[in-house]
Specification:
- It is a single chain.
- By secondary structure, this protein is mainly α.
- The chain is flat.
- The protein contains one helix and no strands.
């Protein structure tokens, strides 16, 4: 119950909580860090291209 009334929530499939081995956790963390660094590098590259581009707006 909230200030907006009652809410009904349907629970889907349940799965047992599991633990990752150290190697599995390490691989997952490394993968996430690599993806994050790639995204940051790509974003920086795009910003550099935008700053260096000679863009003219003819929509007037």
């Amino acid at each position: 119950k909230s200030q907006f009334g009652y809410h009904i929530i349907k629970a889907g499939n349940r799965a047992e909580a599991g633990y990752l081995s150290l190697e599995q956790a390490r691989a997952e963390v490394e993968s996430n860090l690599l993806a994050s660094k790639k995204q940051q590098a790509f974003t920086g590259y795009l910003e550099k291209l935008k700053q260096e581009a000679d863009i003219k707006d003819y929509r007037k």
